[in-house]
Amino acid sequence: MAAVQSLTSAPFRRGVCSVQIMTRKPIKKSTRFNVFARDGFTCRYCGRKSDEVKLVIDHIIPVAKSGTNDEVNLITSCDECNSGKGVKDARPDMDNENVRLSAMQSMREQKQAARAAIEGVKSAKKIRQTMADFWMEQTGREKADASTISVMLRYAESHGFATVCGWIMKAALKCGYSDTAMGKYVSGIRRKIAEELEAAK
């Protein structure tokens, strides 16, 4: 034991060899689920599903051959198919491979759509807060009626944010900073513009 300890504790000593123990990097739980979901919880070799067999995550290029834990190198396999593969490269049939690649592309698109939706929500919240801040600045109060702000935002979608802010400024001067009165005044301006546009047709 002492001899082994001296070898491993001095790896850089001339003429002395050391043994480096490599550990296998575990696959994250989230990655496992993504691969199972992508492959429809189906073994990509034999086609059996999770209610028939135990499913595991398999490396297309084995770890022993420097295969990574990236999703593109992972595939769903049943325990039997995975055990029989050994250290050979996994070669699912082309139909299964095409399905896998198609599923991966679909997953990427879904993730991109989800990110875009999240950014859209953040942007909408920011615009709403900007409108509320401007409204409160004009009224001189620290609160704004939520339904009134929603109406102003709908008007802004049709006529532009800056235009509606101009209407709000006019309403504040005319109506004495009452949310209800200002809201009605702005709606009146919008209604008048709509009538003028209709008459001009």
Which of globular, elongated, flat, extended, rod-shaped describes the shape? elongated
Describe the largest sheet: 2 strands, antiparallel
Number of domains in the coordinates? 2
CATH class of the largest domain: Mainly Alpha
In the sheet with the most strands, the strands line up as 1-2
Q: What is the CA-based Rg, rounded?
A: 32 Å
How big a fraction of the residues is strand?
under 5%
Quaternary state reads: single chain
Order of helices and strands: HHEEHHHHH
Q: Which residues form runs of ≥5 with pLDDT under 50?
A: 1-13, 15-22
How would you describe the overall organization of this protein?
With 201 residues, this protein is mostly helical. The chain folds into 2 domains: 2-92, Orthogonal Bundle (DNA Binding (I), subunit A); 112-200, no CATH class. Helices cover 61% and strands 5% of the residues. The chain is built from 7 helices and 2 strands. A two-stranded antiparallel ribbon has the order 1-2. Helix 4 runs parallel beside helix 6 (161-175), helix 5 packs across helix 6 (161-175) and helix 5 (146-159) runs parallel beside helix 7. The longest helix is centred in the middle third of the chain and has 46 residues, at 94-139. The N and C termini lie far apart (98 Å). 17% of the residues are buried. Mean pLDDT is 78; it is low at 1-13 and 15-22.
